[in-house]
Specification:
alpha/beta; Rossmann fold; two-stranded parallel sheet; 9 helices; about 30% helix
C-alpha cells in the first residue's frame, strides 16, 4: 500500500514508519521539519506546513493517510477537505483526554467518577479547549486544541472512512519524562521518596512507544478498522504508586516511598487535580478486533523507560 504519514517524527511515529516499511509498504512522511528522525532508506521524506500541504504530497495518491498531529477542529476539517476522494481511508491519533473523566480530573467539569475501565463508549468531555490556559498566545495550537472536536469532524462522515486511535500516556524516548520528578531522587541515591496522596492511588493507562506504534500499524493494515474507535494501551492500569514501585525495583532502589498530603510537598510538586477520576482504559476492543498485543516484553519496556529517565540525571 501507499501510505502517507503526517507528522510522525517524535515518539511513536518513527516506530510506525519503520514497521510499515519493513512490511513492504510505500511510505511518505510529511512534517514541519521541527524534529527529525532516522528513517529507513527508501522512505520518501517531505517538509512543509501541515496546514498548507503542497501539491507534491498528492502526486502519488495514498491508499491510507495517517494523521499523527490533528490537534484542532480546523485541522480536522482541513484534513478531511484535502483527502476526501484522494485517500481510501485514514487513521487519526486521538487521546484519552476526550473522556468526561479527564474533564472532571482537571476540574473543568463536576460530577461523580465514571466507572472504570473506560470503554470507547464512555461519556466524553463536555467542556472545550482543555489546554487553552497553557497557550502562550491566542494563536498557539493549544488555544484551539480539542480532540473531542477532532473526533466529531472525522467520525460523523463517510467520505474518508477514518479509524480513531485514543492513545494512552506514551512512555519512550523524546517524551517529556513524566516520571522524572520521582525518579531523580531514586537515581541520585535518596532513601526516601514522598508522593502525593490521591495521586498515589490514581490509575492512568500508559503504553510503551513501540507497543503503541503497533496499534497504528494494525489499524493501517486492516481495512476493517475504518469507522472504528479504539482505546490503545496496557491491558491493566496499575496505580501510580504501583508504577513507581516497579521502577524502583528495576532501578534496584531500596528506599522507602511515603504517601503524604499535598500540603507537605514543595509547592512546585503539588498537583491540584481531582484524582478520584481515573483515566484507565478498557483495551479489549483493539485486542479483539485488530489482534493488538504488546510488542515489547514488560520487563524490557520498564528497563528502557528507566534508562531514558536515567540520562537526564547524569
Amino acid at each position: 500500500m501507499r501510505i502517507l504519514i503526517l507528522g510522525g517524527t517524535i515518539l511513536t511515529g518513527p516506530c510506525v514508519v519503520r514497521r510499515l516499511h519493513s512490511l513492504g509498504h510505500d511510505i511518505t512522511v510529511f512534517h514541519r521539519g521541527v524534529h527529525e528522525a532516522e528513517l529507513p532508506p527508501g522512505v520518501r521524506h517531505l517538509h512543509g506546513d501541515l496546514a498548507l500541504l503542497p501539491r507534491e504530497v498528492f502526486d502519488r495518491a495514498p491508499d491510507v493517510v495517517v494523521h499523527m498531529w490533528a490537534m484542532t477542529e480546523m485541522a480536522a476539517e482541513s484534513f478531511l477537505e484535502r483527502f476526501r476522494g484522494v485517500a481510501r481511508r485514514a487513521v487519526v491519533i486521538s487521546s484519552g483526554d476526550v473522556y468526561r473523566a479527564y474533564g472532571r480530573l482537571m476540574g473543568l467539569e463536576s460530577g461523580p467518577p465514571d466507572a472504570i475501565p473506560l470503554t470507547e463508549d464512555a461519556p466524553l468531555r463536555e467542556s472545550r479547549y482543555p489546554y487553552r490556559k497553557m497557550a502562550p498566545n491566542p494563536d498557539h495550537w493549544k488555544a484551539q486544541y480539542d480532540k473531542v472536536l477532532v473526533e466529531h469532524v472525522l467520525v460523523h462522515q463517510a467520505d474518508l472512512p477514518t479509524c480513531v486511535l485514543r492513545f494512552p500516556a506514551v512512555v519512550g524516548p523524546k517524551e517529556y519524562r513524566r516520571f522524572q520528578r520521582w525518579l531523580k531522587p531514586m537515581l541520585r541515591g535518596d532513601m526516601e521518596l514522598r508522593i502525593q496522596e490521591g495521586w498515589a492511588s490514581w490509575r492512568w493507562t500508559h503504553g510503551f512507544h513501540e507497543d503503541v506504534a503497533e496499534a497504528v500499524v494494525l489499524a493501517v493494515s486492516n481495512s476493517s478498522s475504518a469507522g472504528r474507535i479504539y482505546n490503545v494501551g496496557e491491558f491493566y492500569a496499575p496505580t501510580m504508586a504501583e508504577r513507581l514501585a516497579e521502577l524502583a525495583r528495576a532501578a534496584d532502589w531500596r528506599g522507602d516511598i511515603f504517601e503524604v498530603p499535598a500540603s507537605e510537598l514543595d509547592e512546585t510538586d503539588r498537583m491540584p487535580h481531582n484524582f478520584s477520576h481515573h483515566i484507565a482504559y478498557d483495551t479489549t476492543r483493539v485486542r479483539t478486533e485488530l489482534g493488538y498485543k504488546e510488542a515489547v516484553p514488560h520487563e524490557i519496556a520498564l528497563a528502557r523507560t528507566l534508562e531514558y529517565e536515567r540520562v537526564s540525571v547524569r
